[in-house]
From TrEMBL:
The chain crosses the membrane at residues 53-74, 86-109, 156-175. Residues 1-45 are annotated as: Disordered. Pfam families: QcrA_N, Rieske. Iron-sulfur subunit of the cytochrome bc1 complex, an essential component of the respiratory electron transport chain required for ATP synthesis. The bc1 complex catalyzes the oxidation of menaquinol and the reduction of cytochrome c in the respiratory chain. The bc1 complex operates through a Q-cycle mechanism that couples electron transfer to generation of the proton gradient that drives ATP synthesis. This is Cytochrome bc1 complex Rieske iron-sulfur subunit. Residues 236-327 form the Rieske domain. Its cofactor is [2Fe-2S] cluster. GO terms for cellular component: plasma membrane. Keywords: 2Fe-2S, Cell membrane, Disulfide bond, Electron transport, Iron, Iron-sulfur, Membrane, Metal-binding, Oxidoreductase, Respiratory chain, Transmembrane, Transmembrane helix, Transport. InterPro entries: QcrA_N, Rieske_2Fe-2S, Rieske_2Fe-2S_sf, Rieske_Fe-S_prot, Rieske_Fe-S_prot_C. It comes from Cellulomonas humilata.
Amino acid sequence: MTNHDTGHEAGNELATQAPGALPDKFADPGHPEHHDRLGDNDPKANKKAERQVVVLFAVSVLATLGFLVAYFTLPPGETPESMLRSNLALGLGLALSLLGIGLAAVHWAKALMNDHEKSEERHVQRSSDENRAGAVAALKDGAEDSAIGRRGVLQGAMISALALFPLAIVVPIVGNVGGDWNVSKFRHTMWKKGTKLATDPTGRPIKAADVTIGSVFHVIPEGLEEAEHPLDEKAKAVVLLVRLDPADLNEAEDRKGWSYDGIVAYSKICTHVGCPVALYEQQTHHLLCPCHQSTFDVANGARVVFGPAKRPLPQLPITIDDEGYLIAQSDFNEPVGPSYWERLK
């Protein structure tokens, strides 16, 4: 009796049962009818599929080599353009290397290996010794079915791709061995006593008289462009400057001299994961990080009022010079940004 006939009889049986009654079991419909692939009957098509798999492995090999070339010839540099160029080349190389291996494995399985559906009954978790021996035999049959032993070019392409790809991971790791792991540099920024606060990105010094209540300035240290690594220094030293009505400003006793006539300056780097905090709400005096919605109260020492951040934004003590320009009294009161392994708080 065919599966179709069995299913038909089961259907008749269900039709004769009382409404709402459940059958004791359903008939096994069996596997769907198998259809041969083109390569199963045509040796030329089979060989073509093999060549396609080889080409995909070759793409992976070339992409891995391209990644290594890009790693050594296109360093990130100090400019956004050089960083974009380096990251794009490395990313494309790594993506194509993995994609080539993945597509080759899938195409190999679908076009060259046996595609007959198989099933087995469920059994207890611990198989019998006989079943275990059968599993080992099945693995051997699978290896034989893949015909890797008879496909020398395909075997070489696969081994080359799999052998070269780890270099895309190992080389950058080895290249960073002996690099700069001095995390103490995060404790300090360019800010020091007397450094003028300047607008970002123009670098124009800011006078206290130019800062009106409710206004916000994105600030960098004056002379930032003259630093040895200006982008690195800017990443640590960026500041958000806000002026509040002095009556709304609640300062701790040890910070009462850190602001000037309601003007306060806080690190722009979120203490959660380092995103730029830049969305200021004048009525509530709340400062929002757009990445994960950490919210800081500027009127109360930039303490956290919502979100995943655990620490207030570090404050930059400020005052004015003889000409009325805003200047720093010192560096930030604590290291900026997220926690790191040598940070005490």
